[in-house]
């Protein structure tokens, strides 16, 4: 998967960044990617399968037989050695996932999210198909149009160009488009920093192209609930020219340490 630099998307992104509306600062950003099987995608499929297999083969640990004695329950018979959960045939109850069986769409969605957020330490190989919800084209357009129509008048040129610009790249449902939203609040890397966040995927299998639309709202940095201006100006994780959302800090540059998000221990945040 490769990022596709598009002047039309860059123009829209610049007009729809940090727009004050609905009581917050809204950003809508479009990115386009090619969808082809490369070494990177094969590795992602392997990672997804490996994680799913590890989860399936890790049973719950049964309590120690001595625990029941403290609660006036009769002592339990000790479990066989080296058998977690008391079942030596646990692996037989699961069908191991083969990387070749992983849906291409899941691989591409994970690859796009990894490209966007990898500098923050995220690896979305933990995601599964049920972390994405499929929309019809009318449902998708309604969801996005609700936000576009709430933007102030100065954004009207960008709003008018939004759908034609997207369809130039990925077409529409008649041209083979499928519409999805990333719906896993515990996995959302913007959950701790944004008022709300939405990640949409527009996938065209025929054209082998994927468009990622990220929409999020941030609290207004100039005014708090007390009505007083706050120190500092607006900042964004997507500031700066980059083929991905977050730019890599320069050597010696200090930045705020990320302290939240999905699976703190899994990603090394303690």
From TrEMBL:
Residues 223-259 are annotated as: Disordered. GO terms for biological process: negative regulation of transcription by RNA polymerase III. InterPro entries: Maf1, Maf1_sf. One of its GO terms (cellular component) is nucleus. It comes from the Eukaryota. Signal peptide: none annotated. Pfam families: Maf1. One of its GO terms (molecular function) is RNA polymerase III core binding. PANTHER family: REPRESSOR OF RNA POLYMERASE III TRANSCRIPTION MAF1 (PTHR22504), REPRESSOR OF RNA POLYMERASE III TRANSCRIPTION MAF1 HOMOLOG (PTHR22504:SF0). This is Maf1 regulator. It comes from Leishmania braziliensis.
């Amino acid at each position: 998967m490769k990022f596709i630099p598009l002047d039309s998307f860059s123009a829209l992104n610049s007009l729809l960044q940090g727009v004050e509306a609905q009581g917050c600062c809204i950003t809508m950003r479009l990115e386009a990617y090619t969808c082809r099987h490369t070494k990177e995608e094969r590795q992602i499929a392997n990672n997804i399968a490996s994680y799913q297999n590890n989860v399936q083969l890790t049973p719950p640990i049964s309590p120690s037989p001595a625990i029941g004695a403290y609660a006036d329950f009769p002592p339990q018979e000790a479990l066989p050695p080296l058998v977690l959960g008391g079942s030596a045939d646990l692996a037989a109850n699961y069908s191991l996932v083969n990387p070749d069986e992983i849906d291409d769409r899941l691989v591409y969605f994970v690859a796009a999210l990894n490209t966007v957020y990898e500098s923050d330490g995220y690896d979305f190989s933990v995601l599964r198909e049920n972390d994405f919800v499929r929309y019809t084209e009318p449902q998708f357009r309604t969801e996005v149009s609700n936000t576009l129509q709430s933007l102030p008048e100065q954004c009207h040129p960008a709003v008018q160009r939004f759908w034609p610009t997207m369809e130039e790249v990925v077409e529409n449902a008649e041209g083979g488009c499928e519409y999805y939203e990333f719906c896993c609040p515990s996995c959302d890397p913007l959950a701790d920093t944004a008022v709300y966040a939405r990640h949409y995927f527009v996938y065209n299998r025929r054209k082998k192209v994927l468009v990622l639309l990220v929409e999020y709202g941030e609290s207004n940095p100039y005014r708090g609930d007390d009505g007083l201006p706050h120190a500092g100006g607006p900042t964004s994780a997507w500031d700066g020219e980059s083929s991905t959302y977050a730019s890599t800090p320069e050597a010696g540059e200090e930045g705020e340490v990320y302290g939240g998000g999905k699976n703190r221990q899994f990603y090394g945040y303690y």
